């Protein structure tokens, strides 16, 4: 049993808790592969997606996960809500809770927003990405996908490439993968990899060709176009020349390397289509596995006994 109301970050999870989420997700992966993909586990409960930032994968897969668990789901529309009249985050969440939400799934531009809500709410709060801080369910679905493809994570050489400084996906993955025993290295320009990050127990490479050697898992990150022009790199062309994943570069990695990307992808910038759609890519498996992982998260946070 999990003794937690909220899932805020991977940083706060023990190894045993991470393994419990992953093992429970494996059971739910079987469920979503059946003709009848629903179980009554959380019938009568309500989940609300409270997204203050755009999302395709996370919001949709939380909605599907809740429906597969027989919950009612509301997709709260921030642009047409009283948020635009100035209603604050806590008042908005308290209102949603008063309407009957058992789970509030929040994505917010501000790091720490889910932690603030968790202190004020009886409902379970799930962090679906907060600023540049964490995206815990992405890291769990990435770990689940690696185990599915590689059998185990312990001892694997895993590279995360790109904009580490602004990536909540990278941070959650560093916490998750190092706790699970992987050797994690970060690859990218010095402007996008803060020096302090070495304290998280990772290696750092500022040369793509060097960094790719003997890698078992390659996790490419999105270049955040919205940050272009802020001087982190001169141009997307130059970024692509130095850090983009091409077939030639992929051949430097280990045999049977798998290529991951949390999405959305900038094809032709951080990854070429030939690889994104090629035999080493597990990018769409990550998306599919997100449903099982998010089912496991809501199920375990609910405290319902099997
Ligand atoms: N990986 C991820 O968070 O994608 P979305 O922004 O589409 O949810």
Provide a quick synopsis of the model.
The protein is of the alpha/beta class and 306 residues long. It has helices at residues 15-32, 57-68, 89-98, 113-120, 136-150, 168-179, 208-211, 236-243, 247-250, 273-276, 283-302, and strands at 46-51, 72-76, 103-108, 124-130, 157-161, 183-187, 203-205, 217-220, 258-260.
Description:
The protein folds into 2 domains: 15-134 and 287-301, 3-Layer(aba) Sandwich (Rossmann fold); 136-282, Aspartate/ornithine carbamoyltransferase (Rossmann fold, 3-Layer(aba) Sandwich), CATH 3.40.50. Helix content is 38%, strand content 14%. It is built from 11 helices and 9 strands. It has helices at 15-32, 57-68, 89-98, 113-120, 136-150, 168-179, 208-211, 236-243, 247-250, 273-276, 283-302, and strands spanning 46-51, 72-76, 103-108, 124-130, 157-161, 183-187, 203-205, 217-220, 258-260. The strands form 2 sheets. The chain has a 5-stranded parallel sheet. A 4-stranded parallel sheet has the order 2-1-3-4, sandwiched between helices. Helix 1 (15-32) packs across helix 11 (283-302), helix 3 (89-98) packs across helix 4 (113-120) and helix 5 (136-150) crosses helix 11 (283-302). The model has no long low-confidence stretch (mean pLDDT 95). The chain binds phosphoric acid mono(formamide)ester. Phosphoric acid mono(formamide)ester binds next to helix 2.
């Amino acid at each position: 049993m999990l003794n937690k109301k909220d899932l805020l970050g991977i940083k706060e999870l023990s190894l045993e808790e991470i393994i419990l989420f992953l093992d429970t997700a494996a059971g739910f992966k079987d469920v979503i592969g059946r003709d009848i993909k629903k179980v009554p586990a959380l019938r009568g409960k309500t989940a609300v997606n409270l997204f203050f930032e755009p999302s395709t994968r996370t919001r949709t897969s939380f909605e599907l996960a809740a429906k597969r668990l027989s919950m009612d789901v509301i997709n709260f529309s921030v642009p047409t809500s009283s948020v635009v009249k100035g209603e604050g985050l806590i008042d908005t969440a308290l209102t949603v809770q008063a309407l009957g939400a058992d789970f509030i799934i929040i994505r917010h531009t501000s790091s720490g927003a889910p932690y603030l809500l968790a202190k004020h709410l009886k409902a379970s709060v799930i962090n679906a990405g907060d600023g540049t801080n964490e995206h815990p369910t992405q890291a769990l679905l990435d770990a689940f996908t690696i185990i599915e493809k590689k059998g185990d994570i312990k001892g694997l050489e895993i590279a995360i490439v790109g904009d580490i400084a602004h990536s909540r996906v990278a941070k959650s993955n560093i916490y998750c993968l190092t706790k699970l025993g992987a050797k994690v290295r970060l690859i990218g320009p010095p402007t996008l990899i803060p020096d302090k990050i070495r304290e998280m127990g990772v290696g750092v490479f500022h040369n793509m060709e060097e960094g790719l050697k003997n890698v078992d898992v390659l996790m490419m990150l999105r270049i955040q176009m919205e940050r272009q022009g802020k001087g982190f790199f001169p141009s997307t062309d130059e970024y692509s020349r130095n850090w983009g994943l091409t077939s030639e570069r992929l051949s430097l990695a280990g045999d049977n390397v798998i290529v991951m990307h949390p999405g959305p992808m900038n094809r032709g910038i951080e990854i070429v289509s030939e690889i994104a759609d090629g035999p080493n890519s597990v990018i769409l498996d990550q998306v599919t596995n997100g449903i099982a992982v998010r089912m496991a998260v809501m199920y375990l946070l609910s405290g319902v006994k099997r």
